[in-house]
Design a protein that fits this description.
heterodimer, A: alpha+beta, Alpha-Beta Plaits, 4-stranded antiparallel beta sheet, 8 helices, globular, B: mainly beta, Methylamine Dehydrogenase, Chain H, 28 strands, WD40_repeat_CS (chain B), initiation factor (chain B)
């Protein structure tokens, strides 16, 4: 090993400035770890043999047009143009063989990408050599691979579709034996059980929290009134974590890309997705695909930022498609300049199939399908001035909103479009509209559109709803206006899987909350109001995932007021306060709800777990508390009838659990008593010890006090209880007896 | 429990001290005049005028004749409690942070802050019987490893054999008063994580309680420096006190004055919180201040306590009879 001084001298000689060398960007060549053990060894292991022949940087492009001598240079030029975009072609690295007889090309060519130049290595300095080798070899291999993948299937014209192979692959394929050998059946190795957490004996739910540098996963053990740790890792993620929609994976973000974690016993890394400086991630609803997002601020503030989005297959880790461009292409652009892309850029169609995803950009809706990862019908939908799109959570129906144009000459429009047919199922024109918001009900049965309209004077706005019944014939639309038309709408929320919705409306600080139902026993086809609660301190609505219960929450300005409300009975179950609460999240079963104070405030960071009816279960304080997220559960396999049956016979089923609960609470109070007793005993020991020492030192203390005898603690005053009765006055009053 | 509001100071309170008999209460504040109150009804008896800076700490002799005060005017002063006459002034070249009379009142320990090129130090002074004979020489001077970190409190250990000090460097140290040697100090594992703001010792010098910005208070054995209990609260602790009667500790604090939100007084949590000393569980809280609590003191009879806040008020609380029957 060369001494540091030598390295410095040499690097100066070669013009390498160490301070500019980004060590993170150095990747060691495959198969050589220079004696440095790496935990990523397994990743490189498979690739190793491929590059051994040294032709790894050559690709063979087939299906080229066969051209005569005159056109040879033109074709060469075209090829160079194509492949120079994908990598650096070595000097004279493009070789297109020509039939010596006909002088025609043979329809294929070889392209060699840049390799390290054999430079004069007269001095034995490994370091510089290693650096060169790392950059060049690995780079050129990458380039060749990259070029192969990118240009395979490239359409030069209709008849000439490139077939690109690595040069090394030819050797391998030529050496395939003539006789067929049955492949060896590999012994079955069961994969990691990714659903293990669902089989928890106590049927608990998991939650992940981030505080300070730590990310922790806990069981919510409401019986024990505390969380039970599952896994804890400091610096697990570099920004945030997110569960996949069905709870199978936990995704973490890093400088190099995203990673997903999961598994049976503890969290192991299942897959990584390379995307440097990834900022945001999003799963498809069936968690088959992961979308990652990275944007780079432009050096010139007037330019749009650069955006790169990649779509990965979650299980294989393969990148399915990547999108690059300026932020404008991924957003509709704000009125005053460039607005950043709003996440998620790609919105996934509902359902578990993960079939379609859509992107909204200026005047265009691009819908892609996941079979080929290309646009449906190979073209985007042109919709002038479209500002918002929203998928049905269950079907491939897209709702879109186009605002008014031409100063009111062309009305605003809300439309439902069927995908992939792109047929407009229903549309409605709306007049003097200032804004629209679309809210789908979770089972895709209803769509509520909140419409803000201008008053006649155009000075203020008022709100109403357009309610679409998707599952009914011809999709009837109903108009709903609040009792007081001028009320501002503060929040809106559908009951999950239900037919009801809640609205907070009116003026702060004491708005009203109203509940409506899309069908009641008397009135199946019309929306009707169930109740209005007057003057509530609420600005946000949180339905239980099973419906029926709702939390009317007063976050931020209202200091964390919580009202647990039963909508079936229309009664308040409990009111509580989690002071300064910033976030509220129901567990996926609707049994418990977490309220949290995240680090937007300095004080009282932490979270509180409540039961669905508003009983405080436990509180945890954590400084620098950033995030809390319940692990989602996949939808139940039970049919609606079965669920109803269980609900009906709940008493029968719950007996077992009630007994268990009682056992636990008995055990707990027993443990608690035991703990208290131990603490008291320990304390007594200390006190005894102190007393005896105090006694021992009594005389010395007296000396220090110049002989004054009394100690404070030796009762100078004797407490005596004296009863004293004083008769002040006696009067007799005759009370008239009433009949 | 209806508190008595004692308004006499114009600036935030810094320290409260009862005399041994529990009939007098001394208060120090960032205005320059320590004040004496009747501990029963909160009536103001008088003030001690002479300091020229914020007064950080005081102590009163066992017979309630002498008062010693430490001030940011770089002096510590001895006073005649009864007449309010200034008897002697110790001059240091830097602000005086804490003062404490030794058992027998012949010695006092005084801590001084880091100031320009003077390092923070602990001084031991001999207190003469007759103020005429008083000299300003130090018997002993101790220095912590990091002289730039403030020593917020130093008190005498059992039989005046040790001095216990605590401050911004989060470490509690026990010093030998004979030799000036460091006998013991807390390690990172059990010690506080942030600056220690307050220290209060039990009447029999057997154990003491420290409060820290790390949002905890810890109870220690005074001879061995063994950690016995930890009390966790949601806010930085500025002041601590122990009930001499029941197994209760009181923690006071709140957000830093500079970080206090202006929206809601509850946001700062300016509560005096009561904890069970043995079980370490919160029992209850006493609200009222509209700024952080800087000072707490228990009446030696354990039947009342007072709190001093950043808001300039002293609140004197006589416990209801319910308090003595709290069961948890």
């Amino acid at each position: 090993m060369a001494a540091v001084v030598d390295i410095d001298a040499l690097s100066a000689q070669l013009g390498v400035n160490w301070s500019e060398v980004n060590l993170d960007s150095i990747q060691l060549p495959p198969g050589n770890n220079f004696g440095i053990e790496s935990d990523d060894e397994a990743v490189y292991h498979d690739d190793q043999s491929e590059f051994d022949t040294g032709f790894g940087n050559i690709i063979v492009v087939d299906h080229l047009p066969v051209v005569p001598k005159e056109k040879f240079e033109k074709l060469e030029g075209v090829l160079k143009k194509i492949y120079n975009q994908l990598g650096v072609i070595k000097e004279n690295g493009l070789w297109m063989p020509v039939d010596p007889d006909t002088k025609m090309t043979l329809g294929y060519c070889f392209i060699e990408f840049n390799t390290p130049q054999e430079t004069e290595l007269d001095c034995l300095t490994m370091v510089v050599y290693i650096l060169r080798v790392c950059f060049n070899v690995w780079g050129s291999l990458q380039e060749a691979q990259n070029a192969k993948e990118k240009s395979h299937g490239y359409k030069l014209d209709k008849t000439h579709i490139f077939a690109v192979n690595m040069f090394d692959d030819f050797d391998r394929l030529m050496n395939v034996r003539e006789e067929w050998e049955p492949p060896q059946a590999r012994p079955y190795v069961p994969g990691e059980n990714l659903q293990k957490w669902l089989t928890d004996e106590k049927a608990r739910d998991q939650l992940v929290i981030r505080s300070g540098p730590d990310t922790e996963v806990y069981w919510n053990d409401a019986r024990q009134k505390k969380p039970e740790p599952v896994h804890k890792r400091p610096y697990w993620t570099e920004s945030y974590v997110q569960w996949s929609p069905l709870g199978t994976y936990l995704v973490t973000l890093h400088k190099q890309g995203a990673a997903v974690w999961g598994g049976a016993d503890t969290f192991t890394r299942l897959m990584r997705y390379q995307h440097s400086m990834v900022k945001l991630v999003d799963f498809s609803p069936g968690e088959r695909y992961l979308v990652t997002y990275h944007s780079q601020e432009p050096s010139n503030p007037r330019d749009a930022s650069k955006v790169e989005i990649k779509v990965f297959d979650v299980r294989t880790g393969r990148m399915m498609r990547d999108f690059k461009g300026s932020a404008d292409e991924f957003s509709i652009g704000g009125p005053g300049g460039v607005a950043g892309a709003s996440w998620p850029v790609f919105r996934w169609a509902g359902g578990k199939d993960d079939k379609y995803f859509a992107k909204l950009s200026k005047n265009t809706i691009s819908v892609y399908e996941t079979e080929t990862f290309s646009l449906i019908d190979k073209k985007s939908m042109k919709v002038d001035n479209v500002v918002d799109i929203c998928w049905s959570p269950t079907d491939s129906i897209l709702s879109l909103f186009v605002p008014e144009q031409g100063g009111g000459n062309q009305p605003a429009k809300v439309a439902l479009v069927q995908i992939p047919s792109k047929v407009e199922l229903r549309q409605k024109n709306l007049f003097s509209v200032s804004d629209c918001k679309m809210y789908w009900q979770s089972s895709g049965e209803y769509l509520a559109v909140k419409v803000d309209r201008y008053t006649k004077t155009k000075k203020s706005t008022y709100s109403g709803f357009e309610l679409f019944r998707i599952k009914e014939r011809d999709i009837p639309i109903e108009v709903l206006e609040l009792d007081n038309k001028n009320d501002k709408i503060i929040a809106f929320a559908w009951e999950p899987k239900g037919h009801r919705f809640a609205v907070i409306h009116g003026d702060q600080p004491r708005p009203d909350v109203s509940f409506y139902s899309m069908k009641t026993a008397q009135n199946t086809g019309r929306v009707s109001k169930l109740a209005t609660l007057k003057a509530k301190q609420a600005n946000a609505l949180f339905w239980s995932p099973t419906g029926k219960y709702i939390i009317l929450a007063g976050l931020k300005g209202f200091n964390g007021q919580l009202e647990f409300f039963n909508v079936d009975e229309l009664e308040t179950m409990a009111t509580a306060e989690h002071f300064m609460a910033t976030d509220i999240e129901w567990d996926p079963t609707g049994r418990y709800v977490a309220t949290a104070v995240t680090s937007v405030h300095e004080m009282e960071n932490g979270f509180t777990i409540w039961s669905f009816n508003g009983n405080l279960v436990y509180r945890i304080l954590k400084d620098h508390f950033f995030q809390l997220a319940w692990r989602p559960r996949p939808p139940s396999f039970l049919t609606a009838e079965k669920e109803e049956e269980i609900a009906k016979n709940l008493k029968k089923y719950s007996k077992k659990y009630e007994a268990e609960d009682q056992d636990v609470s008995l055990l707990l109070s027993e443990q608690d008593r035991e703990k208290r007793r131990a603490l008291k005993e320990e304390w007594e020991k200390w006190v005894m010890q102190w007393k005896s020492l105090h006694e021992e030192e009594k005389l010395e203390r007296q000396d220090l006090r110049d002989g004054e005898v009394s100690d404070v603690e030796e009762d100078e005053y004797e407490a005596k209880e004296v009863e004293f009765e004083d008769l002040i006055d006696v009067t007799e009053e005759i009370v008239q007896e009433s009949m | 429990m209806r508190p008595i509001l004692m308004k006499g100071h114009e600036r935030p309170l810094t320290f409260l001290r009862y005399n041994k008999d529990g009939d007098l209460l001394f208060s120090c504040a960032k205005d320059h005049t320590p004040t004496l109150w009747f501990a029963d009804n909160g009536e103001r008896l008088g003030t001690y005028r002479g300091h020229n800076g914020a007064v950080w700490c005081c102590d009163v002799s066992r017979d309630s004749s002498r008062l010693i005060t430490g001030s940011a005017d770089q002096t510590a002063k001895l006073w005649d409690v009864k007449s309010g006459k200034e008897l002697f002034t110790f001059k240091f070249g830097s602000p005086t942070r804490s003062v404490d009379f030794a058992l027998g009142d012949h010695l006092a320990v005084i801590t001084t802050d880091h100031f320009v090129d003077r390092m923070a130090a602990i001084h031991v002074k001999r207190i003469a019987e007759d103020p005429e004979d008083q000299v300003s020489d130090s018997v002993l001077v101790l220095q912590c490893p990091d002289g730039k970190k403030r020593i917020n409190r130093a008190v005498w250990g059992p039989l005046n054999q040790t001095i216990v000090s605590a401050g911004e460097d989060t470490v509690i140290r026990i010093w030998d008063t004979e030799t000036g040697k460091l006998l013991n100090e807390t390690n990172e594992e059990v010690g506080h994580k942030k600056a220690i703001t307050s220290l209060c010792k039990a009447a029999d010098d057997s154990h003491f309680l420290t409060g820290s910005h790390d949002k905890t208070a810890k109870l220690w054995d005074m001879r061995t420096l063994t950690l016995i209990k930890t009390y966790t609260t949601g806010v930085p602790v500025n002041a601590v006190a122990m009930s001499p009667l029941l197994n209760h500790v009181v923690l006071g604090g709140g957000q830093d004055a500079s970080a206090v939100t202006t929206t809601d007084h509850r946001a700062g949590k300016f509560e005096a919180k009561f904890y069970d000393k043995i079980l370490q569980e919160e029992i209850g809280g006493v609200k009222g201040h509209f700024g952080p609590i800087n000072a707490l003191a228990f009446n030696p009879d354990g039947k009342s306590f007072s709190s001093g806040g950043e808001d300039g008020y002293v609140r004197l609380h006589h416990f209801d009879s319910d308090y003595f029957n709290i069961k948890i």
